[in-house]
Amino acid sequence: MADMLDLLSDYTIQTVAMGAALLGVSSGVLGCFAVLRRQSLLGDTLSHAALPGVCLGFLVAGTRDLGSILAGALVTGAAAALVVLALTRLSRLKTDAALGVALSVSFALGVVLLTYIQGTGNASQGGLNSFLFGQAAAILRSDLWIMGGIAAASLALVAALWKEFKLVSFDPGFATSLGLPVVVIEITMTVMVALAVVIGLQMVGVVLMTAMIVAPAVAARQWTRRLGSMVVLSAVFGTVAGVAGATLSATARGLSTGPLIVLAISAIVFVSLLLSPERGLLWEMARRWRDRRSLRGRQVLTTLHAMAAEHGDRSYPAELGSLDTYHGTDTRRVLARLEQRGLVRPVTHAPETTPHWELTPSGHVEARRLAADIEGHQ
Fold this sequence. Notes:
The structure is a single chain. The chain has helices spanning 2-8, 11-36, 41-61, 66-90, 95-120, 141-160, 162-170, 172-177, 182-221, 227-251, 257-275, 281-310, 320-327, 332-340, 361-377, and strands at 318-319, 344-349, 352-359. With 378 residues, it is mostly helical. The protein folds into two domains: 2-258, ABC transporter involved in vitamin B12 uptake, BtuC, CATH 1.10.3470.10; 283-377, Arc Repressor Mutant, subunit A, CATH 1.10.10.10. It has a three-stranded antiparallel beta sheet. Strand 2 (344-349) and strand 3 form a beta hairpin. Helix 2 (11-36) runs parallel beside helix 6, helix 3 packs across helix 9 (182-221) and helix 12 packs across helix 14 (332-340). The termini are far apart.
């Protein structure tokens, strides 16, 4: 315990944890709108498009200045976003094709620029390629002010344009009919995703940043149907994953922070997909199992009711073997559940010694209701 407290009081670890928290909040909130607009690949495209901006920022500043590098990343990321919007609106390319074009071209340009910088012999370029996979340990407290300022500006923009973002995300056609500048709002939302990418470049890098855009929103979407709750949950999940990844990286020496953050948020997504109410895989399996049980019960009830009606006897005793043969399965468990509900009861039918079942008055009422529902849906 004392070792853990000493570890958490370490200046570098605190700095990395705060940076990871900023990344989790910003990417969690801004990624929600990309996921809801079915543009999950947008984060991947903009993160790869940030690489040439990183190189251009370095070339302009002549040194590894974080402010210049992030500004360059924002410019090229925003430019890639505008190119995607232009391609989808001015050509016949679908969104996924436009995203693929922007991703491949911008990343290729970034690799060429990175190779050029490495060949110039500039001593300041050391560690520049860490932006590919992130280097959280290199973050300084002064860098946190830059990251925090970008995160605060993007979150303030979300708060100011909440209704517009919400409407355009769910029904852009209706937003157009109201006279809203849908194109401008879409550009703003896309540029905001670029802001989230910029915040996470030094933490998780270009290659892994797409996971931080998509994963928190995907996990949050499993737990709620409301946008407000989804945004809050996504920010919480992103923060938890960021801090957990940073802490694990500090306790397990030699493990990179960025990949651990991505693994942490991936674990949250897995748990959400598995356990979330109504949407979770386990809940879905349980629901289907209950539906199958309920369907078998309804089928046996309607069969008993039809047999009683055909013989003109409300108390007609149906033989268990006949029911099994008719339904092609063993119906004893189904009948036992129906008996517990008071819908059927076992009876004797001399001189036969095999089990027989008949409907109770409540069973007849339920069977007639089921028959009426079936007729109403035909």
